[in-house]
Design goal:
Elements lengths: L1 H20 L4 E8 L7 H11 L9 E5 L3 E5 L5 E4 L14 E5 L3 E8 L1
Parallel strand pairs: 1-2
Antiparallel strand pairs: 1-6, 3-4, 3-5
Helix pairs in contact: 1-2
């Protein structure tokens, strides 16, 4: 379950930021997980709850946004939005799509104390 590794990396990144800025706790995180990413939001939420126990992030709320993916249709050249890597082009029905976005995870906001 690579979601645990991602949470450990996130905690490490925020711990470094905590040392730099001097806050005591993180109370809320808002992240974005693109629909074309290989991350399972529910598995990430579970891993987050386990990973933040007994840390400065214990009790923090995790908000997850799921933006649609973006791709270019290799058949008609149209830039389209899709929900999965298996979607067809909504313009021509082609299935040869080249993903161009919506496959990443990023931290959008954090609330600190």
């Amino acid at each position: 379950m690579h979601e645990l590794t991602i949470c450990d990396n996130l905690i490490g990144m925020l711990a470094a930021e905590r040392r730099r800025r001097g806050f005591t706790a993180v109370t809320r995180l808002k992240i974005e997980i693109g629909r074309l990413s290989c991350l399972d939001p529910e598995a990430l939420r579970y891993a987050f709850d386990i990973s933040v126990r007994d840390t400065f992030m214990h009790g923090a709320t995790l908000e997850i946004e799921r933006p649609r993916g973006r791709a270019t249709c290799l058949d008609c050249g149209t830039a389209v939005e899709v929900d999965t890597r298996l979607d067809a082009c909504p313009h021509c029905g082609g299935v040869r799509l080249d993903p161009t976005g919506g496959d990443k995870m990023r931290l959008i906001e954090m609330e600190i104390r």
